[in-house]
Amino acid sequence: MLQREPDGGVWQETLDGGQILVRFVVDASETGAIVDRFQNRFHHDKQFQLLILPVAAALPLREEGSENGEKTDEDDGADKPKPRARLSREELHHEMSDMTEFSSVFVAAVILSSIVAAIGMLRDNVAAIIGAMVIAPLLGPNVALAFATTIGDTQMLQRALRTNLAGIVIALGLAASVGLFMTVDPAGTEIANRTQVALSDVVLALASGAAGALALTTGVSAALVGVMVAVALLPPTIALGLMVGGGYWPEAGGAGLLLATNVICVNLAGIATFLVQQISPRTWWEAERARRGARVALGTWCTILLILIMLILFIQEP
Fold first, then answer.
1. CA 82, 95, 234, 125: dihedral to nearest 10 degrees?
2. What is the pTM of this model?
C-alpha cells in the first residue's frame, strides 16, 4: 500500500483476534494520498480501521531530504520544491464536522462574544471588540459551509447552515435587547464603521474568508484564525442588532447590507480557496458531483455579490 517504506519505519504486530496492527510515521503532506490508497483497498472490509494521530516530536532529529539525521552531499545546493503542507481530507472533515455542532458551548460562546462586542461598540472600546472576535463562534459554521459545498457533503452543509443561522439570530437578538435598554450612539466610531459599506469592505471580507480557509487547512489555531474571519462577521451582526434595538433604521439597513456582503464574501472566498487546494471527495463520481455543486454555489454567490456591489455603489452616489 505504501509506495516506499516511511523514513520513520513500519511496526507490525498480530492481535489476539487475528487482526493485524500496523503503525507507521509519514510526513503530513503525504497523509491524504496514503489514506486514499488504504480506503480504495480496504473499504469493503468491515474490520478495517485507520487512525490518524499527530506526532508532537520525534528523536533523533532528521533534516529534510536525509536519512538517519545525516545530511548527504546530494542535499547541498538542491532546490527541490516542497509539497504544500495541509491537513488531509479526512482530518479536515472531522474538524469541520465538530464546528457545525449546535451545542450549549456554541450558544454560550455566541452569547458571551455578543455581550463583549456590544459593550465594546457602545464604549468605542477596540480591545473589547477584538476580545469578542477571539472567541470566534461564527468562524466554524461559515468555513464548514464552504468546505461542505466544496466536497458536496449535503448533511454537513445543512448542519452548517442551521448552526450559522442560529448563531446569527442569537447574536442579533441579544444585541437588539442591549440596544433597547441602553443608550446607543450611531455616530460612535466603532458603530459608524459597521453601518456604512464600501468596496474596501468587500475586499476585506474576501481576504478574511480566504485566510480562514487556508489557515484551517494547515492546522493553525482557531483562535488566531477567528480574529481574521470574525472581523467580517461578528461586529456587523452586533451593530445591526444595536441599531434595530435603538430604532435607527437607516443605520440598521447599512449594517444589514454589510453583514450580508461579508457572509457571501467569506463563503465565496472559502470555496475558491478549497478548490485551489484541490480538496475533493475520494471517488471520481463523488468528485464530479461536488465540482458541479461548487460551480453552482460559486455562480450563485458571485451573482448575489454583484447585485450587492451595485447596491453599494448606488448608495455611495451623492
1. -70
2. 0.73
